[in-house]
Amino acid sequence: MKDFSYITNSSPAAIEALYQDFVKDPASVDPEYRKFFEGFDFAVGHVAPNGQAAATGAGLPADLDIKKEISAYRLILGYRNKGHLLARTNPIRPRKDRGANLDLEFFGFTEADLDKQFYAGTRLGLGTTSLRNILDHLEKSYANHVGIEFKYISNQKKVDFLTNAMEKEFGQPMPIEKRKRILEKLNQGVIFEKFLHTKYVGQKRFSLEGGETTIAALDAIINTAGALDVQEVVIGMAHRGRLNILANIMGKTYENIFSEFEGTQVMDQTMGSGDVKYHMGYGSDITTPEGKTMHLKLTPNPSHLEAVDPVVIGFARAKADVLYESEYDKILPILIHGDASIAGQGIVYEVLQMSNLEGYYTGGTIHFVINNQIGFTTDFEDARSSDYCTSLAATVQAPVFHVNGDDAEAVIKCVEIATRYRQEFNSDIFIDMVCYRRHGHNEGDDPKFTQPHLYSLIEKHQNPREVYTRYLLENGEADARQMAQDMEKKFWADLQERLDEIKQNPLPYKYQPPELAWKSLRRSTENDFDHSPETAISAADFDKLFNSIMQWPADFKPLKKVEKILQDKLKLFREEAKLDWATGELMAYASLLLDGKDVRMSGQDVKRGTFSHRHAVLRDEETDQAYNRLSRIEGATGKFRIYNSLLSEYGVLGFEYGYAMANPNGLVLWEAQFGDFSNGAQTMIDQFIAAGEQKWNRMNGVVMLLPHGYEGQGPEHSSARMERYLQLCAEQNMVVTNITTAANFFHALRRQLAWPFRKPMINFSPKANLRLPESYSLKDEFTQGAFKEVIDDSFVKDGASVKKVLFCSGKVYFDLAARQQKDQAKDVAVIRVEQLYPLPQKQLDALYHKYNKATWFWVQEEPLNMGAASFLKMNLPSINFGVISRQPSASTATGYAKVHAQEQAEIIDTAFTI
Question: How many helices (H) and strands (E) does the chain have?
């Protein structure tokens, strides 16, 4: 649908000339202009040849001036499209001039026209009315304390919804009960901060002061959502205002919060090292004023601004899939942003690009921006090039409410409309609440160092509670001041009682099925990693699964090249009873589905696999119809969800981490296109995957598949940076594997859900070796045993005769084994370490004892300063070994194939001649 912005931007004379052309010959004007003029004529009735409308429409004045009517309509469109540029949304300082021209003169009017009657008023629901009334209504609707950006939306139903809401709801008084609720929430937000500021002088808390209307806004979103049958709200935010939201929205007891300030929190409550108080998560069940029970979840997060965003979205998607049968109206994600971070952090853009994609859709997110007009100590003029911090919303046609944070009622109306919009259209929407930050970046920081003028204004400015109390007094609520004083006195006393250890009853909390599943798990111990649990499947199940994934419907015609690949896999199994790597992987997923477990996988081109090996989803070469090879397993109750992702690492990995955090009984995997590309998601790896269990007492079983191996493909396509992950390993925080056989990979994947705990698994996956016959596995290896952390040499028969042991991991094993067999080097043993962390110490010690007359060497393809060498030197003191590798290097690998081949040959030659 057209928004007719050209009508707004054109001069009156030009529009009049076009209209006269239209009257004479409608076909002579541009089709878009013709649509507009036809619609206008339909509204006002028959047009006489002289340009005056005949008084044939009901209630139309006989002297209707078409030229003026068009100008009035242009004025309406102008306010709808550009009113936000005039709106008084900044509570502290004048707005920066955005160049909006909505003066009467621009539209061809003078003061004398203000009391003339215009039919165009019917477009606002006012009927035929004066231009003065039209202008007053437009000011209240679009240019008072709220401005809305939505002209870029192409869906006319959305435009009509927003237009109707703006023009009918603003300017209307609120009922007294709602006003009391707003004042109560403002009171809680303001007094809580004052109390902490008084009792804990100088302690960091990243206060909400200046933006306390956030508390009333979140309360209104939750209450509105409850009335619209939302059952669960999941919130993500950074640290500013977090303690206030925990206390006054989530219902975390004040005692609990105060004990964190006092430093008396019991260590066991946060597991190992824990995290600072303003990073922790929380869950609660609240009852809305209408009696609806709502499940609330605030996810834990690091200080890395906006990093939590994709985690929340993934968490919400998992809950929708697991609990609500993918009915997204039942769960509402809310992301609370800062103005500097939403404009400056690319992860927000990635999350927006996910919003309408099949694999990442959550039915829309409410984005609430606490716009402090400052980031750390940087003024917004130095923080962004766009007009607004929310300008990126236009990329997905998400509307934006810009609202003055001091006008609590305007904020509440915005968030209520936004919540209804989300439920109606299942689309993202933004509220940009312009407010301020009372203190510096933290309570010990002096903001006047960088913004002396701004903070001289803020010092004198009343808080939102005081502003709202004054507003109520000025608008007929005579007892507002006494009511506010009573609330303050009572709330302050309540806070003091909490601090004095008089018990507060925590909100009730009913655990959901996924949370009960988490509670049934336990923490890992060192002994858990001595040997892996049994993960074999029965021969009958093997046959059923294999036959299922190797068939497709009779009327389905896969691409001939792909069909040949699958036929070769069948031939391999019939002739040698072996499975290649990709088939072993799919068998793991299929077996989990048969166990009733869900499997979710995403990444760039994962359906076929980056290296065209997986082919989990086939395409009909004639119809392009997709066929999921794991969709027809008899008796399987688990669901297999696989999605080709957008070109993102940071956002997508965060989403999958969030998805895995919500559901312990599903296997969640992310595959990098090449392993090195995962460094684009380093924040997620460092802050969530490696540290989440220690910081937030949150286990997670997400799997990262990182293609790794030196094959002469250059610096960005060789190393997945194994050393970085190993450096992050401690306290059994994650599992790092570099697996060489299809069966061992099968067992590793099944082990993720067989353990009585959950750990992230980082697997360094093969590339060329996906098709290496030596990596294939016999059927018996799938129907017997478990994952093998270490695989001993099978070529050497007499351990006592071994003079040298080469232990290694991953792809280099096959080069070493080939040379061993070529030279018939029976005095050299080659051992594979399939799991690097937790390090299989006892198994390696046993082999060291077995080959006690040999000299040991660790062999790796990576340069000496990379790979596992340093990690093993630090963590394997019981074994005396040397290291054979490439020379230390600043880059991971050479870009020249011949140099690569020479270096690789030197490693293998050195291993057998040293």
Answer: 30, 28
Q: Which residues contact 737 (CB under 8 A, 6 or more apart)?
A: 748, 761, 762, 763, 764, 834, 835, 836
Instruction: Specify the residue for token string 């989530």.
Output: 250
Q: Rounded distance, CA 462 to CA 435, Å?
A: 12
Whole-number Å distance between alpha carbons of 767 and 672: 12
Burial class (CB in 10 A: 0-12, 13-18, 19+), 470: middle
CATH of domain 522-781: 3.40.50.12470
Query: b/e per residue, 362-386, with b = 16+ CB within 10 A?
Result: bbbbbbbbbbbbbbeeeebeebbee
DSSP character string of 556-610: --B-HHHHHHHHHHHHHHHHH-EE-HHHHHHHHHHHHHHTT-EEEEEETTTTT-T
Query: Tell me, what DSSP letter sits at residue 400?
Result: E
What CATH number matches the domain at 790-913, 3.90.930.60, 3.30.70.20, 3.40.50.11610, 1.10.238.10?
A: 3.40.50.11610
Tell me: the pLDDT tens digits for 126-184?
999 999 999 999 999 999 999 999 999 999 999 999 999 999 998 788 888 898 899 88
Q: Does residue 509 contact residue 285 with C-beta atoms inside 8 Å?
A: yes
C-alpha dihedral (791, 792, 793, 794), degrees to nearest 10: -80
Instruction: Report residue 48's pLDDT band, with 50, 70 and 90 as the boundaries.
Output: very low
* CA-closest candidate to residue 888, choices 863, 858, 905: 863
Residue 897 phi, psi (nearest 5):
-60, -40
Query: Helix 560-576 crosses helix 581-594 at what angle (to 10 degrees)?
Result: 80
Peptide bond just before 707 cis, omega within 30 deg: no
What is the CATH number that goes with domain 176-239+276-475?
3.40.50.970
Predicted local confidence at residue 272, as pLDDT: 38
Q: Which of 181, 91, 193, 148 is nearest to 405 (CA)?
A: 91
The contacts of residue 31 (CB under 8 Å, 6+ apart) are none
In degrees to the nearest 10, what's the CA dihedral of 859, 865, 869, 873? 140
Q: How confident is the model at residue 595 (pLDDT cuts 50, 70, 90)?
A: very high
Classify the phi-psi angles of 712: left when phi > 0, otherwise alpha if psi is within -120 to 50, otherwise beta. left
Closest of 795, 837, 811, 831 to residue 893, by C-alpha: 811
3 pLDDT more than 60: no
Question: Residue 47 gets which letter from DSSP?
Answer: B
Mean pLDDT taken over the chain: 88
Range 52-81 burial, b when 16+ CB lie within 10 A, else e: ebeeebeebeeebbbebbbbbbbbbbbbbb
pTM: 0.90
- CA separation, residue 380 to residues 343, 383, 444, 448, 530 (Å): 10, 5, 22, 16, 55
Of the candidate CATH numbers 1.10.10.10, 3.40.50.150, 1.10.287.1150, 3.40.190.170, the domain formed by 5-144 belongs to 1.10.287.1150
Using an 8 Å Cβ cutoff, are 684 and 704 in contact?
no
What whole-number distance in Å separates Cα of residue 278 and Cα of residue 370? 16
What whole-number percentage of the chain has pLDDT above 70? 88
**Residues, the chain:** 914
Encode 616-680 in three state secondary structure.
Answer: CEEEECCCCCEEECCCCCCCCCCCEEEEECCCCCHHHHHHHHHHHHHCCCEEEEEECCCHHHHHH
Among 588, 545, 541, 578, CA closest to 777: 578
- Residue 454 has what pLDDT? 79
Looking at the DSSP bridge assignments, the partners of residue 627 are 618
For residue 285, what is the DSSP state? E
Residues in CB range of 612: below 8 A, 6 or more apart: none
Could you list the beta-strand ranges (E) of 708-776.
735-737, 761-765
Residue 437: the pLDDT is: 83
